[in-house]
Amino acid sequence: AALEALNEAVLDCRRCPRLVEWREQVAREKRAAYRDWEYWGRPMQGFGDPAARVLILGLAPAAHGGNRTGRIFTGDRSGDFLFASLHRVGLANQAESIERGDGLALSGAYIVAAVRCAPPANLPTPEERANCSEWLEGEVALLPEVHVVVCLGGFAWESALRLRSALGGAPVPRPKPKFGHGVVADGDPWPLLGCFHPSQQNTFTGKLTPPMMDAVFEQARELAW
Ligand code: DU
Ligand code: SF4
């Protein structure tokens, strides 16, 4: 119930003027292929199993993906790649994530974004990350079974280091653990596990392949159970 309340409250957040303007502008103007859609145009809520042992941390919603459909990683190619992998490794009940209400459910996993509003060029500022970290800390504090945080890309990794410091009480280690695919950064209250972000930039070029992403989630399962 506390998780639902937090995810209800986040919908009213307007703390980052630049992102509020962008998320709403995109929602008004739309992309031609989606002109019949009523875009979400609001902050993204966390999605998944409240008893999750694997937390998946993304960057921010895509302008015509989550910002259109209202569900994280839903309705874009990154999400297609991510959920296909989660389904193969047994963390999702179906391989596709089309829109809210499509029956998708996660089991043992929960997904949240470091920044909850769609940013121009998929690039939030450090200030916007700091603003949104309060939502992130509040939400993860309500997920008591988390045992590992899979960070999709370097931005999420940086957010997770700060998140862990905020929740675990220890300062961010110096030198900072370096992000990499399959890299584990141990620490309390849970280890971080790096995974290249499933953006087209990585998946179209072969920098991230389906077996590579599956391997990270298998590794996450081993760390989490
Ligand atoms: O109303 P709902 O968001 O579909 O959630 C119903 C119920 O299912 C709630 O207890 C969370 C859980 N759940 C889940 O385990 N995995 C999901 O991906 C979505 C919801
Ligand atoms: Fe609020 Fe986060 Fe959106 Fe900023 S990015 S307006 S803090 S929900």
The major β-sheet equals:
6 strands, mixed
Class in CATH? Alpha Beta
Question: What is the name of the CATH superfamily?
Answer: Uracil-DNA glycosylase-like domain
Structural class: alpha/beta
Question: Which kinds of small molecule does this entry bind, naming each only once?
Answer: 2'-deoxyuridine-5'-monophosphate, iron/sulfur cluster
Question: In whole angstroms, how far apart are the ends?
Answer: 25 Å
Number of helices: 8
Amount of helix: 25-40%
Q: If classified by CATH, what would the architecture be?
A: 3-Layer(aba) Sandwich
Mean pLDDT over all positions? 98
Taken from the alpha-carbon principal axes, the silhouette is globular
Strand content: 5-15%
Poorly predicted segments: none
GO molecular function: 4 iron, 4 sulfur cluster binding; DNA-deoxyinosine glycosylase activity; metal ion binding; uracil DNA N-glycosylase activity
Domain Uracil-DNA glycosylase-like: 45-217
InterPro entries: UDG_Type-4/5, UdgB-like, Uracil-DNA_glycosylase-like, Uracil-DNA_glycosylase-like_sf
Family: Belongs to the uracil-DNA glycosylase (UDG) superfamily. Type 5 (UDGb) family.
Describe this structure in words.
By secondary structure, the protein is α/β, with parallel strands linked by helices. It has a single domain (2-224), classed as 3-Layer(aba) Sandwich (Uracil-DNA Glycosylase, subunit E), CATH 3.40.470. It is built from eight helices and six strands; from the N terminus they run ααββααβαβαββαα. The protein has helices at residues 2-9, 17-29, 66-69, 77-88, 126-140, 154-168, 200-203, 210-224, and strands at 47-48, 54-58, 109-113, 148-152, 184-185, 192-195. The protein has a six-stranded mixed β-sheet with strand order 1-3-2-4-6-5. A hairpin with a 6-residue loop joins strand 5 (184-185) and strand 6. Helix 4 crosses helix 8. It is globular. The mean pLDDT is 98. The structure holds 2'-deoxyuridine-5'-monophosphate and iron/sulfur cluster. 2'-deoxyuridine-5'-monophosphate binds at residues 47-50, 105-106.
